[in-house]
Amino acid sequence: MSSKHEDQVEELGHWSDEQLAKRGGVQASAEEQSQDKQEVPQPDKGEIPVWLIGVIGLGIFWAGAYLFSFSGGFKSDVFDFEPKFGVVGGAIGPPDPKVVGKALFSANCITCHQANGQGVPGQYPPLAGSDVELGAATNHLIAIELKGLQGPVTVEGKPFNNSMQAWEGQYTDQQLAAIMTYVRSDWGNNAPPITADMVKQIRDEFKDRKEQWTWPEVEKIPPKNLTAPPAAQPAGQQKPGAPSPASGSQAPAPGGQTPAQSQPPPPSSPAPTQPAAQSQPPSPTPTPVIATD
Known about the structure:
Layout: H1 3-13, H2 17-36, H3 50-70, H4 97-108, H5 110-113, H6 131-134, H7 138-147, E1 149-155, E2 158-164, H8 173-183, H9 196-205, H10 215-220
Antiparallel strand pairs: 1-2
């Protein structure tokens, strides 16, 4: 510390507290005056930006649309949490099996059989125009879908050799029916649909089989066309198990009422003959009277 500073400290040491407070106040007032002399910045004044006006207007429009849609007409007894636009109501029908089948086919089968149904040469047979898919032996098709197929097979004169997994554990009867219905109706195919009842029938028939089919084994299964309509009963032919009608008996009348037995007609009595009208003698012709003078 310099001698000058030592002198100042010694001088301040002789000051009283009142003098020190007075000197501190003088310094504080000097600092305040220097701050007052500095210019205080003023905020800029200008027009509101156009984009800000657009944002505010969009918010007001959205709020009005929201209130219009969810206000329920501003009625206290209405709570319309979901606005209805367009046609409302109407029964929702079951999903189209072709649409469901296409989705399932695209998820699992498209890798092997391709999106165009042409398969992979030498490995996976085509589905477009295939006799296996469109043939009358629909029980063969369903059995392959359920249990899978392995080994060589010839389709449209071309050999294929690969393995198809069993789908019975992954898909329900309804889903398998939808897949086969789609395959039988796309890529130019046109065959009757497969129903879930048909799949269930074949599933129950081969429920004890655990291995995949080979093509020779499939060919040994008696072919059945499950999509064919039932044969009509020939007219006049009695159905099996139906009781034969007894001679002289009549079929029961509708409503369970027993028809009255036919009675022989009463003997016809000869109509009474009426006596012929008796001939009456002709009445005498009156003689003309001639007046005389």
